[in-house]
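1st attempt posting a full record on here, be nice pls
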Amino acid sequence: MHSFTLLFLFFVVASVTVRLWLSQRQFNHIQAHKNRVPEAFSDKISLQDHQKAAEYSCTKLRVGRVSLAWDTAWLLFWTLGGGLSIIDNWWANFSLAPLPTGIAVIASLLIIVSILDLPFSLYITFVVEQKFGFNQTTWRTWWLDLFKAALLMLVLGLPLIAMILWLMNQAGQYWWLYAWLVWTGFSLLMIWAWPSFIAPLFNKFSALDDTSLKARIDDLLQRCGFNSQGVFVIDGSKRSTHGNAYFTGFGKNKRIVFYDTLLKTLSEDEVEAVLAHELGHFKRHHIKKTMVLSLLTTLLGFALLAWLMQSSWFYTALGVENAATHTALLLFVLVMPVFTYFVSPLFSALSRKHEFEADEFAKSNSDYRALISALVNMYRDNASTLTPDPVHSMFYDSHPPASIRINHLKSVTGDAG
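the predicted structure (as tokens):
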């Protein structure tokens, strides 16, 4: 057995073991604290809501373990089990040119993987979310979303894949740099186009029509020097009762989006504070920093792929018979998450740092007590656990745990209460 095969298997076993260990830690910690609301939240969140969040979180953990086993089994099949070679050899029978063969193999694998993921998507939406009272998605909406996503992949994804494969075949030793430039241009185009052209295919966006709230928001935007298309309300209730708010786009196409479900539960002060938090991400350049980090990571990825694809052992050690550009690309995409899993806590830590900074910006431009109140409401309404395991949270959470986040807000304001 090749040494790289052993290395791959080691990282598969290690990552699965750590995932299961963290999942069990999270499960045990939540269960141990489910019968008592943390003191800091006892006057705001009922024991019933706290226990609902605990059961919701534990249910998702159970589903996640099954999904992990399913995905790991298929990963081993596609690689060491020869599954990728089976698809590649089948398309080789049609004697197509290298580029259409590569596109066909990649498209086939994407379709199969998407079909294999459908049971989990259906179960989460129509069983788990339904059980806890969050699901608003109809079967018609679910299938329409699936069709639209597939159509977007066909219209936007396949041409991108074709361009990268062509560069890998024709652009010489520096193809990886040209491919990265294409990927960068495509990513920037998608960020620009998402708010105005892509997201509206799935949801309805409308201008905020509450005149009193709009006046307060306009004043906040002016104070913060933020120019955009405006603040929009998305019909999130079409699919779920979960509430959220986010910042999207760049340049003249940037906008702030509130879920209609969120606006129903927050006061004007709380909405203003949440908006100030979202503006904090913009003013502290978090979107730009994250984008630059992502693009640099992608550049390193393309450079590594360019080196690996020249080595025959990269293919044979991972169960692939045909050394081709499309098999190299697929192998790289399939196996890299196994090797990079243990780096994910660094990105989680960076995201939590950004959340703290955005909270501090919100504190300086709104009522921090309203932000705390809004956060508590959002934790309650989204059934987010108030008692996550610290190690699990450190590894995965992009947002600080509720108690840590609120204590941080109080500490920067000198509020010891």
